[in-house]
Amino acid sequence: MRLVLEPLLRFRYWLINRRVRRADLITALESAEQTLRWADRLPEGRAAEQWRATFLNVIGFVRLEIGDLRGARTAFEESLWIEEELDPKSPETARGLNNLASVAYHQGELHVAQARYEQAIALRAAIDPMSLDLADSLSAAGQVLSSLGRADDAFAMYERALAITTATEPDSSAHAGVLTNKATLLLNRGALDEARSLFRLALDIETAADPRSPATATAWSNIGLVSHALGDIDHALSSFQRALEIDMAYTPEAPRTAADHNNIAIILLDLERFDEAIEHLTEALRIEQWAAPSSSATATAFLNVGYAHQLAGRPAAAVDDYRRALGIDAAIARSSRDVAFDLTNLGTAEHQVGNNDDAVHLLKQAVAMFEKFELPADGSQAGTNLAFVLGESGQIDAAIDAARRACAAAERARVLAGHPDTREKLFALNQSPFSLLLDMLHTRRGDNDGDEAFAVAEAARARSLADLLGERPIRSSLRDGAMALRLQEELALHRELLDARARLASGRTDAQAVRDLEDQLAECRHRLRQDAPQYANAVTPEPVSASEARSQLSDDTLLLSYAESTARLHLWATRRHASAHVTLNISAADVVPLVDFATAAYRRGEPGGDEEALAQAKLAELLLEPIPEALTADVRNVVIVPCGRLFHLPFEMLPWQHGVLGDVVAISYVPSVSVLHHGIRPDQAVARPFVGYAPTSLPGARTEVRRVAEVLGASPQDVHTGATKEIVAKTISGAQQVYFATHGLLDDQQPMQSGLWCTPVPGVDDDPVLRAFEIIDLRIDADVVVCSACESGLGRLLAGEGLVGLSRALFFAGARCLIVSLWPTPDIPTRRLIVRFAELMRDGSAPAVALRLAKEQMRESHPQTFATPWTWAGFVVIGAAVS
After folding, report:
1. Among 64, 188, 512, 787, fewest CB within 10 Å belongs to which?
2. What region holds the CHAT domain (predicted)?
3. Residue 545 CB-half CA count within 13 A
């Protein structure tokens, strides 16, 4: 019988594996169970036992894949018993231990899983210390340690595993699996760029091997997790949906498919598509309760169902779900990231049902766990919730302490995230602790609370811009070194992405092609920072304190710093020797329509009328009248730190005394005092007074540049009235003043694609726009850069960062201050204003003073042309513009 059966068993083994690879799991399981019965008919002996163990392992694997954890455990236990009887030190015994550890992990028995993996690791290391089997056990053990909160031990396991896979099979699915596990831990700890880089590498490996495999589905899920963490909801949802599509075809009843349903549900809840979300959550919970009712995956399903109840206004139901999740997770490990999440959510729900004491107790435990496990982003969220509940309970001092810790955690999470662009996306999502702390400090009104609130506001604004400006010397040093090729690669990807977005807009490509390029660009920037050792030593600039801000002011300068909080705008009016902190009677949301009404006609290219004047008067009442009169005496310069939509408002046109504010004081704007203090480069000697640019297609602009050049006594060779992008790049360095007279191109969705129109070069450069991503690598030495282009002062408004666009790129390139436009203005008034500004600059006025006087004098000399703010107020000065 053995001679007849063994060839048949070998064939059946091959056939079953083929069905597994094709995702025909149920047929594979039926075949394996039938073949096991045939193996039982073999004569007793070693060969028969080996065949039985082989097919038991197959049965266990398939049952694990389809989510039948109990059935998998039974099969693996019987298989391991056979293997240990045959040879307790064999590779097959190690495999059996590894398989049982995997089942224990999925069932939430983490300590059992840890012990099994340790046994498997010891056996496999003794058999072959460089085997992929050993790498698999090390990586899986790292997952268990991570779930137990032992992150450092988990990292050590992953590094051991990577040393093996990198040296042996770096293109294998085994290598991708280790990368995925390490990246998951990095993602949990907040290292978003590094996690995204490893996830993307794993996705590339898995897709090349089999684009429809479960491993590829897992890779897509992980890309979705990073996208969700950065607020890219569309990318996250499409990634999760791709994962679900693959897993549904492979194992519709498996825990991995339930995880896909959970991930999609969270996105749908964020999008307020509640009915669809509930469908996915119900399916996820059904699968998890059938497959592993005591696993962390089941707890996650309950957690998400509770979140849905909470959003729907059913906090009591949420409490029940959160308690069930906590019961499961705490039984697995009393202290873990999962438990801390459960405590956070349960604490917020208990507060909503009125159990404040319980809420405080739960949230304090959560904050302590997140701090223990060094998870600052999660800790910031829990700490913010704790501060809110304490504040609602009247414990204002304790609430402020909790909010301070939450703000500190948010800053740690921001720095960990990676590239400044990644940091700003994360920080935009994590402004709550700063807003809450501002309100609480103003409520308490202690002796130093006003100054502390100023520092909190500074810590919450333009932080990534300050980081970028601080790193400017590093990037400059890379342009001529070995990293120059990497910078060229980054530039090429920006251009490819620009083209891909244009093709997407015209329907000639799909959104995924654009997302792939976005991921490639992020990966390129990540590698650039990894490979350039200078970035490792870059210091994150500290926010400026109130006393430091006061010390920077001249005696005739008033600093007006606005900030958003949870309910109202805050204002700090600061002079060199005195200051005041007031809460304004308007919210950030209410500011938006007022600013829009005040500027709507001008943005349409119209003179405006009573509607705009009324809105301007109301803004003056809300934003300027609360300033204590004592702080406005003898003021000649005002420096304004805007927030939110105030970045679109020129304060110069607001009514003040018997005219407008711009009649009385020179006004300049800065993204933050910290940027002005740390980021704007110091004044320096330059080779020539002027360089100016205008495209061939704009005769009025060419006239403006020539006239300014005459005023400043510039050499004809510094007047470029047919300026191409190449000419700009070659000639802009070494000029004290730079003038761009051209059209501006605003892209408030993709601010790095904004730019200034240059002269096209047919056949050489199909894109005549000097983009922000090209401007950052110019070498500008100018004290002032004038952009007399439409809307050159606008950009994307990002919470916690302000305007992101052309102005940021020009500052990074080296400009000390900018003259930019907030709306389109007619050619002739623009030319008159800019030429007069140049004359005043030539005569020694500071940029802010020169712009104020130019506006005043033009309104006096040409009262009809400059009767409306449309023709004069749109030009503003940003940066180091006063003494």
Report:
1. 512
2. 618-880
3. 7
> Which runs of E-coded beta strand occur in 92-241?
none
Comparing 3-7, 51-55, 767-771, the range with the smallest average pLDDT is 3-7
* Structural domain boundaries, residue 630: 546-676
Same domain? 524 vs 563: no
Q: Are residues 115 and 237 in the same domain?
A: no
Asked if residue 805 has pLDDT above 60, the reply is yes
Are residues 531 and 451 part of one domain?
no
The Cα–Cα gap between 613 and 600 comes to 11
What pLDDT does residue 509 have? 85
Number of domains composing the chain: 5
Q: Mean of the per-residue pLDDT values for the chain?
A: 90
Look at residue 319 in the predicted model and tell me its pLDDT.
97
Residue 108: closest CA among 323, 274, 266, 338: 338
Q: Taking Cα atoms as reference points, which of 156, 208, 153, 206 lies closest to residue 180?
A: 206
User: Using an 8 Å Cβ cutoff, are 874 and 602 in contact?
Assistant: yes
Neighbour tally for 224: CB within 10 Å? 26
Compute the distance between CA of residue 109 and CA of residue 333 in angstroms, rounded to an integer: 9
> Coil, strand, or helix at residue 750?
coil
Mean pLDDT, residues 402-411 taken together? 96
- Which of 451, 472, 493 is the C-terminal boundary of a domain? 472
442 and 331 inside one domain: yes
Q: Does 493 lie in the same domain as 383? A: no
Global pTM exceeds 0.85: yes
Do 270 and 409 lie in one domain? The reply is yes
Is 799 within a domain?
yes
Structure tokens at 542: 């500290």
> What does the alpha-carbon distance between residue 468 and residue 674 come to, in Å, rounded to a whole number?
13
Does 764 score more than 80 pLDDT? no
Q: Has residue 453 been placed in a domain?
A: yes
Contact 676, 461 (CB under 8 A): no
Instruction: Read off the pLDDT band of 682 (50, 70, 90).
Output: low
**Is residue 701 located within the same domain as residue 717?**
yes
Angle between helices 463-470 and 420-428 (to 10 degrees): 170
Mean pLDDT for 725-745 is 91
Residues in the chain: 883
Same domain, 692 and 670: no
Stated as kind and residue range, the H or E segment containing 292 is none
Over its C-alpha atoms, the chain yields an Rg (Å, rounded) of 32
Residue 304 lies in a domain: yes
What residue type is assigned to position 220 of the chain?
Answer: W
pLDDT higher than threshold 90 for residue 854: yes
CA distances from 160 to 6, 156, 174 (A): 39, 6, 13
- Given this model, what pLDDT does residue 680 score? 65
